[in-house]
Amino acid sequence: xxxxxxxxxxxxxxxxxxxxxxxxxxxxxxxxxxxxxxxxxxxxxxxxxxxxxxxxxxxxxxxxxxxxxxxxxxxxxxxxxxxxxxxxxxxxxxxxxxx
Length: 99
Description:
Number of strands: 2
Structural class: mainly alpha
Strand content: under 5%
Strand order of the largest sheet: 1-2
């Protein structure tokens, strides 16, 4: 056998030993950590783990306060988005809500 093949065999043997040592140590470490968490009453937040990201749409933002009001119907509009029919093509200053 060549020296290279011998070294590769040794690497494989050592890797198997390292994997086995890790498996046994991880079990002990987990048990130790669980014991400490119980002993001190720690939570995931205390340990700095972020909460899971929410899926889906982001929460809605609060609606903007109305900026314009139709004197006839009392309907309001914040000034964002598509303008309502009662204000289209008209001078918007007439519909401003006085603060």
